[in-house]
Batch of 4 targets.
Target 1
Amino acid sequence: MSPSTENPAASLDDVLVGEAVLGVYRQMFAALARDSGAVVDDPELVDVAETLLAAFADAGEDGLSREQMRYVCRRYPAEVFDNRLRVLKGLGAVREVFPKPNQLRYRASFTSVVGLMFVRRMMLDGGQSEMHRLLALEQLNVADPRMTPEQARDGADGLARAFRLWSVELVTLANGTIEELREQAPKLWGTEEILLRAERLHGAILRRWPQLDRTCTDLRAAIYAYGDASRRAAARLSDSAGTTRNLTLLPPETWRTFTRTASREDLAAVLDGFVFDAAAPWHEPSAVVTAVEDGPRATPS
């Protein structure tokens, strides 16, 4: 068998599809690129890209000229601005309004804005919100009558891969230093809700496509591995909170039990010298105000 038979040359359509995929990748992460082959090593470089993308959004369909872009980024050094603009143009995040020589006006890629929003969310909670969105989207897809078994298999395989990698990362954190575990604590938020959503999705796929039982078995194993790893990491984090007096790491249930059973002196001794906020905004401010106003008040004797 000749080499050409074993490895047929890619068709023009294959090349175009590949270039389209690479183009989306480039635009998605252009804001994080230091040059065409490396990521940024200074947070200020991401700020320049974000400033430019926000200015393009305000400018509308007319876009911006190079002078207008420089004015928007005037607080950054000229060489930093020139570097960011060169990289953003090279990766397709900033393009000419019309592809012709000596173009004076430019527009920004919607894909690059979405990519930067994705990165910002990842920075806030380590991917928790993205997993919630992904599970919700897959649940909608499974309910869509147009969805095929092949698409369902691809979605389940992707989720299983994500849960397996996530569980490996959590196991590594649980076995590592407590300082790193505390730093990565947002990755443990909302674990039970994620598990519940994932198990519901697993059941929905299996009920609609029983022939995907092997795929669903892999997904279920990955979900359970994630659940075990997250509980293990959370247990170590909770134990550390008790031994280090890092009060902000204690769950709300522990606080409620302690405040109901402790004497005034014990509670004062624990809180003495600590000033902290709640670990997460469990209630809207308006709901707290309403609860205080509607709560029982002691009547003067």
Target 2
Amino acid sequence: MGVAVTGAGVVGQASAEQSAERRIIGVDSRHEAAQVKRRAERVVREIDFGDIGHVVVGDFRPDVELEFESRSKVRYVEPESEMKLLGGETVQPESQSVPWGIDRIGAAALHERGVTGAGAHIAVIDSGIDSDHPDLLPNLGEGYAMVPCDECDGEDWDDDHDHGTHVAGIAAAASNGEGVVGVAPDATLHAVKAVSADGHGDSSTIADGLRWVADQGYDVASMSIGSTSESEVLRDAVTYAYEKGVLVVAAAGNEEPDEHTVHYPAAFPEAIAVGAIDEEDDLADFSLTGEALELVAPGDDIQSTVIDGYATYSGTSMATPHVSGAAALLVSSGYQKAKARERLCTTAVDLGLDADEQGDGLVDLQAAVGDAPGGGSVGFDVSTRGAIDARSRTATLNGELLGLGDHSSATVGFEYWVADDREATAKTVESGDESSPGMFSAEVSDLAIDTSYVFVAFAQAGDDEVRGGQREFTTDDPTEAPFSVVTDEPTDIEDDEAELRGRVTELNDVAEVEACFEFWPKGDDDNRSRVVADDDVDELEEFHEDAEDLDPATTYVAVAVAVSADGREAYGDTVEFTTLFD
């Protein structure tokens, strides 16, 4: 008891000297979460992501934050990320109309066949849904309010912004003879109000909303929200939802189109990243691009529901619910969710755009659903997902084992090659053995700078092998980075280790960079290793890190590398050194 009282006194004294700041702390157990909560000045929420881990959101003093960052059972400590809606004249239709996007992806033709999404559940994680709108009321199910509705008289999850209602109408406005009709007019809609009236929401709030969706067992989570921050709590939520069988559909983002800029959560491989096209099938001038992009859908001048009426909006926010509704149609037709995603991708229409502009292409629902409802079960099958973290010489390749069929397990991996030169450059990398369907990935580190690559996922079980479709990515050109780095001569060279040294010589408009080194035995470039310096560099200074587990009496090549938060890389010149005899 004496120790506890003394500790409490120290905490009180430090609180007067240090201001607490909002932090998200991810831990690996409920017990560790309890430890974290005890040290918080204020606990905002706790999120249980099952086997993935627990998260505590609260206000912590800087010294407590620093302590938790060093604990092995703490997975991450991060600040809240601000998420924003990614999408107006009001238009009042005189009678029911079919917006052009619904027709363009083939949904209207399926409605005539009786494929309307009955039995499927779509959760809209947004600003809420107008609970009294005549086009939405017939399809509204249970909702959940993560943030309060501003001056609302209806449900706690009612909309106070218009955005969520607009998204909901695109996905599943009822076919009731008035207003507009959605992609899946008989699907059930669930409002998850995680965004306030000003159009913004916290990453932990949205993550907790997605956790709730997964725990309800809903089929689709439609997320027309995003951030440039790679939030770990959001990653936990997307992974949790994916493992619970939720199809997470998310907006790529709205800015000046630029490579490698797809927003989060869309950029996570477990999510379906959606870009936008206009009525001419051109990439919308606001739609972000990048290797993570999976599909495109109509997103320009889209008419849909808003609070007490109708309006025309543009954005990847509007493209996303087209895909959410499309996924609901496939689920209601009998497709397992993993197969529904695969069908949407493999049947998409190639619009002639670059892969980082359109992903697999434009959703084609008639082709995806097929000749008749009922997609059947998944046999032994694999799908190629996007590449992420494609840098100058490295990239992470993603795939999904859709089903094992009669096999108990399968070896999964990737084949990759330089575009248009498969025969001479093809290589394979295995990810491991999988005994159940799910995502898998592998990092490749022997890539050429500023080069386009093609890759496919494969799965092997005995004599059986299945392969996914081809996807592309392009490595960075380090000369485009506004910062620079120099490789200095290594020091303290021993028989099995050496101290690698470098200097950041320019930063320009970049606040800080991650400093690291790559090294490999001379003549064996495929055997590259990377070590990262302990601290990021925010000024022109030297950095160093040990290369360990080296072979004695061996010549190595080393190079200093600087990496910015957005993935741009700068390489120094290479240097050589030789380890001592044992």
Target 3
Amino acid sequence: MDEKKRACCTLDDQGVLWFKNRLVVPKDMELRKRILDEAHTSIFTMHPGSNKMYQDLKQKFWWTRIKREIAKYVFECDVCQRIKADHLKPAGMLQPLEVPAWKWENIHMDFIVGLPPTQKGSAYNPQTSGQVERVNQILEDMLIACALTYSTKWDECLPLAEFVYNNSYQKSLEMAPFEALYGRRCRISLNWSEPGERVTFGPDLVTQAEEQSYSDKRRRPLVFEVGDHVYLRVSLMKGVHRFGVKGKLAPIYVGPFKITEQCGPIAYRLELPSHLAAVHDVFHVSQLKKCLRVPEEAVDTSQIQIEPDLTYEERPIKVLTKNKEQQEEE
């Protein structure tokens, strides 16, 4: 700690060290981990991002390089790596084909299948309202994290997801929506002191919210090493149960799996388990996501039949009603 920061530290009557109005946490890694766990995996937080988590913790706690430790903690969270979508450029640079010396020397075929309906358009329109879609995605991430962490039904997490979102830091408001409305933060396990009164946030400042574009179609280079562990992206299909969860609340990635070979500049061979023997083990880099920390308990992919094209067979759980034609056939 430099002299400038040291001058801001005070010691109270009980021997507790404070940095301005924030509690100084000693260099006890177990204690810091308990604080980070409570701020990230608690039922009242639901795996926030590193920026939101830092904004919440910095109001009460301080230690050297706290922001860096929070970012590292969130990046290595196994639940966050499996459920949160990437807001990055698609991986894999364009690989141009060599120009053949003679005509018809090389012949390539490409089959286009699975095209969506064109009369009324497709239901997949992520750019309809970017701001609303971003909020929906945050809420979906919260519900997935809650369902995976606490093994509960997603609908039981809806009130908690609403509370967590309204009580978490928003960059557009520069505070939590709850604080903007009531003038103070709602008390949770981390906010153990009595919330002080503040001036209610005025509507004029809300208009300063900035909209960001997530439609950058350019790609980014991404390189892995042999021996790295990566997550594998699987297809999202409506009405399909994956790992005990249905539809949008199913994990986006499975794994992690070990890279055994690099097949060209943008393809890698993975070490897949025996029950995935039917799946081709070479994948494009855009389907992979680096595992920053190999979890002790990985998601069991053997409980569901994965097709060679990384999709899932849709099976009805219960027949609730039948139409007239089905009744006549029986």
Target 4
Amino acid sequence: MLQERSKLPRLWQSVAVGEGYGESWETNWRYVRRHKEDPEGRYGLDSASAVAFYLVHTGPSSFTTSFINGPVCARSRLSIEEIPRLLDLVLYDIPNHNPFRELIPMAHHQPMLLQTIIASSALHMSNACQCSPRSSSMLTTTASIQNHTSLPSSLSIGSCVTSRPETFHDALRAKQQALCLLKSALEDIASADVDVILAVMLLLIGFELIDSGRGSWTFHINGARIIIEKLIASTLATETAFSPLRSWLVSNCLVYDLLGSSFANSDLPHSGWPSTTTMSLLQDAEGNHCSSFPAALLPLIRAGAQLLKTNEVSSSPDTYLGLQDAFHLLHAAKSFDPAVWAVNLQPRSPANDPSHRIEIASAHRAAVCIYLSRIILALWPTTVLPHDLETLVAEIIAHLSNMHPGDALFTATAWPAFIAGLETVDLGNRAWVVRRFQELWELEPWGLTREALGALRTIWGARGNDQLQNQEENWNWIEKLQNIGTDWLIA
């Protein structure tokens, strides 16, 4: 199906040997975190059993053979019955609504897929064994937010050292093996299983989110984008439909692709507005993707980011046409109706959840409006906005406050919460954002949560310093994030 493959091996060759990740796994030992002693003994397993435990989110695994040292035995034991829950990848893990379950039996015969699952699971376990953010050093108050000297401790998550680095080593080793196998598959992609390749790329994006959510995810997104473009073109030419699994894999990759453009400093693809086929795929993901991001809002983020990049390279942005385009995007975001969206989504949602969907969509709408407004102010600082940004922050917090850790859609609150944290100067709002990310970490110990708080700490500190030096005028967190020079993926 994919006969034209010249770009693929070259694109992934450097990734497979560790370049582009800063270090290959052999030189990443300094990142090893020592695990805190577990009072309940839940994590006192051998490394492989702990990996399996975190993959399923249930009691201790019966696996006794290391996934890393005994892959044949591991494959023979891995079965769908032993993987009863895959919650991190979807909002609802309900039979017939979680296509990721199909990956488990595929891993029996696909070492590349197996190693990717092992890598993500081991890294997840390594994160989860770190200190609880509810420790005394993590208590967050308005006073601690206000006191700049206490920011590092009050905003840390999982900063303690662990005593069991072997799971982190396993994660790096399995990731390296997966990348090498992926490189080989891409060199002969015409005979490879494209669904397996897409699944591996998608899970590697997840690995980067579990790790930090910055930097390396762009390699996987770029590789997946090339394959997806060819798949869509082939589908249109042959008038054939994607299988449910392929549709789910493609749609998830597309969501991360568009969402990643919001805080990416690297070059964005020069693509226009998504095609009808792409929008349909994005809508397919709305029902159960972990972000629950309304498909209608995602292209607005990409278009805003492209507008920012385009005008940055111009010595004098076109005041009229560019600003007109920006306000068109802003108007489209404000015109989005969360209630209508939530009702229309119900046939594709695994659960009857219109009220929670309205809350999530309303928060995302306000966050996209803030994001686009900051792009406008970055390019045209004297522009008078039609709304108050701090009011939009309050709107985000009001909607997200109705989502609690026990709710299925709670993990879909990270992106709007991050936007609210970037924008607000209110100390109470900042404290709320910190608590929300602490709760997200307790529920799902992904490194992107820790890194998001670190980015907020940096932004708040920079804004405080600028205020002290009377440089607050035209202050913009969009520009500050760009100056950091990191590609962030908050999902």
